[in-house]
């Protein structure tokens, strides 16, 4: 019989993680959310958008299992370099928007989901391609662990809203956003190299640490995107159809739009 706990222990051990109860519960939560989404939304002959992040690893794994056991035919459209490598690693069919401009369902993670299904995404730096793929999808399904479930944006995710910008304009953009909405903005720095993070698209990322949690996020998103040099924001407003939140004990909470 399939054991979620034993499977997650195997995954954690394989990647040399410390097997603490906290880590165990988070990985279990990610797995059950990912498996539920893939089982309920992916069908034969689907075009599937593959998101980015640690939870999506489990979704691709489950998708590969279903392709093998059920002989499903699916084409996968990646949202990032990481997603592309996951698709290739699991021997799934790799597609692109040029030949698959309409996607049946995209399964992606999120840094935070509020009560209105507004998302913060881009903690991993893939917000532009993630939003493009989501915009081409009939349905966007979010998979996350219980720590990403909030009433208001900023309740739990404290790293701010990512904003992808053209490098030459990052300073004036930073000033304008603070003038418009307050808060603090940091240029995201790289970890293994000196200097800023550079996205897959050759841009910089600003992380906006907002202080007002009661803003109209749809309006905020629109106004920030009107600033010349802003490429995209990590605010996903009215894009998510359903969210699955894996719980520590192995159950799944759902929220629909």
UniProtKB/TrEMBL annotation:
<dbReference type="GO" id="GO:0009052">
    <property type="term" value="P:pentose-phosphate shunt, non-oxidative branch"/>
</dbReference>
<keyword id="KW-0413">Isomerase</keyword>
<dbReference type="GO" id="GO:0004751">
    <property type="term" value="F:ribose-5-phosphate isomerase activity"/>
</dbReference>
<dbReference type="InterPro" id="IPR037171">
    <property type="entry name" value="NagB/RpiA_transferase-like"/>
</dbReference>
<dbReference type="GO" id="GO:0005737">
    <property type="term" value="C:cytoplasm"/>
</dbReference>
<comment type="pathway">
    <text>Carbohydrate degradation; pentose phosphate pathway; D-ribose 5-phosphate from D-ribulose 5-phosphate (non-oxidative stage): step 1/1.</text>
</comment>
<dbReference type="Pfam" id="PF06026">
    <property type="entry name" value="Rib_5-P_isom_A"/>
</dbReference>
<dbReference type="InterPro" id="IPR020672">
    <property type="entry name" value="Ribose5P_isomerase_typA_subgr"/>
</dbReference>
<dbReference type="GO" id="GO:0006014">
    <property type="term" value="P:D-ribose metabolic process"/>
</dbReference>
<comment type="similarity">
    <text>Belongs to the ribose 5-phosphate isomerase family.</text>
</comment>
<protein>
    <recommendedName>
        <fullName>ribose-5-phosphate isomerase</fullName>
        <ecNumber>5.3.1.6</ecNumber>
    </recommendedName>
</protein>
<dbReference type="InterPro" id="IPR004788">
    <property type="entry name" value="Ribose5P_isomerase_type_A"/>
</dbReference>
């Amino acid at each position: 019989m399939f054991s979620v706990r034993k499977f997650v222990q195997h995954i954690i051990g394989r990647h040399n993680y410390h097997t603490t109860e906290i880590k165990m519960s988070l990985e279990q939560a990610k797995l059950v959310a990912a498996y539920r989404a893939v089982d309920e939304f992916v069908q034969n002959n689907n075009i599937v958008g593959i998101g980015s992040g640690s939870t999506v690893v489990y979704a691709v794994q489950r998708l590969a299992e279903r392709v093998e056991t059920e002989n499903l035919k699916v084409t996968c459209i990646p949202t990032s370099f990481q997603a592309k490598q996951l698709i290739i690693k699991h021997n799934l069919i790799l597609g692109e928007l040029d030949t698959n401009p309409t996607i049946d369902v995209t399964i992606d993670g999120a840094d935070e989901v509020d009560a209105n299904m507004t998302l913060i995404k881009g903690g991993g730096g893939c917000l532009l391609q993630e939003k493009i793929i989501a915009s081409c999808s009939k349905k966007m399904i979010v998979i996350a662990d219980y720590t990403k479930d909030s009433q208001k944006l900023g309740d739990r995710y404290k790293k701010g809203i990512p904003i992808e910008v053209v490098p030459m304009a990052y300073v004036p953009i930073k000033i304008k956003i603070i003038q418009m909405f307050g808060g603090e903005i940091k240029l995201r720095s790289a970890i293994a190299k000196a200097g800023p993070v550079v996205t897959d698209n050759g841009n910089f990322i600003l992380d906006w640490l907002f202080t007002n949690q009661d803003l109209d996020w749809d309006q905020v998103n629109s106004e920030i995107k009107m600033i010349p040099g802003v490429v995209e924001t990590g605010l996903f407003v009215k894009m998510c159809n359903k969210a699955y939140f894996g719980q520590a004990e192995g159950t799944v909470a759902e929220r629909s739009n």
